[in-house]
Write a structure and sequence with these properties.
Blueprint lengths: L10 H18 L3 H15 L3 H16 L4 H10 L9
Length: 88
Amino acid sequence: MERYTRHRRSPLEQDLIARAKALLMERDGLTEEQAHRTLQKRSMDQGLTLVQTARRTSPRAEAELRHIPACRRISILQTGRPPRPEKE
């Protein structure tokens, strides 16, 4: 019986997926889990891999993430969720 090994993603692929998730989290107010599930569902619906879907989202992600202050971008990528809005 043949054994299947799980494909490990390269650091570049992991970063691409993280950026696509960060865009969804920031733009749509999703948690990291919700953003990941959204990417998974799009992948399944379109018959693509998760990396391919993230790559399609990436040009938009790059453009939109540039407008997010660096401290928020880092927070999203490190914690998996957007920072809480500051109270007035």
